[in-house]
Amino acid sequence: MIEQNQQSASLQELRDIKRMMERGRRFMSLSGWRGVAAGVCGLIGAWIANGILNHYYVYGSWGTNGYFSKPEFHQLKFKLLVLAVIVFIAAFTLSFLFTWQKARKQHIPLWNMTSRKLFWNMIIPLGTGALFIIAMLRYNDWSYVAPASLVFYGLALVNASKYTFTDVKYLGYGQIILGLVNMLYIGKGLYFWAAGFGVLHIIYGAIMWWKYERN
Amino acid sequence: MKNPITGLNKIFESRIRLGVMSVLMVNEEVNFNDLKQMLEVTDGNLATHLVNLEENGFIKVHKGFKGKKTNTTYTITKTGEKAFTDHITALESMIKGVR
Fold this sequence. Notes:
The structure holds 2 protein chains of 2 kinds.
Chain A: H1 2-25, H2 32-59, H3 70-105, H4 113-138, H5 145-160, H6 168-182, H7 189-213
Chain B: H1 15-26, E1 30-31, H2 32-39, H3 43-55, E2 59-66, E3 69-76, H4 78-96
Antiparallel strand pairs in B: 1-3, 2-3
């Protein structure tokens, strides 16, 4: 009897140690809804971008030399850039809200040691990617924006997965593969973008919800 | 220090000391405030346990500055690491019923 009590006490203590070590290493307050919300934002963004591009190609005025007129092209670039910024802000705000809500439920401060580590490990590859893409745009090179953003985002996720759910790694692999395949189909970037930032996020979010938050 | 029958370390009978060690096992260096936040304890309580761990040679204290504020960080020592893993091994063997 005493032995049995001691056994269950040891088991409980081991579980506590494991929990404390996990809590000290990983930020576990990311909600699956976050992924779904980001995915929906991505899909809506891609759909609007598709509309803008179609409109441009169908109604854009042709210059005498057979090219589209320059002011219109600038306007198109501007519209797409604004759209990208809005989509990013919407996805970021929604993710933040879902994370904040889950952290509050778990009584974990949102900005703690682990979330800080997660943030820096995410932001370094992601920020590098953003600057890299902006630099490409300076040379008017638009063809590699979609694959580059997918690849850098994927690398950021794989790196960040050490400080949160390991499942994030698979979302990262998915984005990297999509980005690399996209390199073989330049010009189809919007579809790959929609698949990566839209569909993959929704699938990932749903799986995470199913796995960790269902009850 | 060790219970001769179970092999469990007396120092780790405190949940707070065990918690400090768990967090330090998975992080290179942790400061006082982060430890406090992770373990949800009061300043005084945590400080007492940290002194105890330091006296036993399980952790090392590094006093530094962040601007004008003091920034005290803690790292685990080789002795501490060994004591912690031995403690876990002892717990595991108790579950298996092996002495």
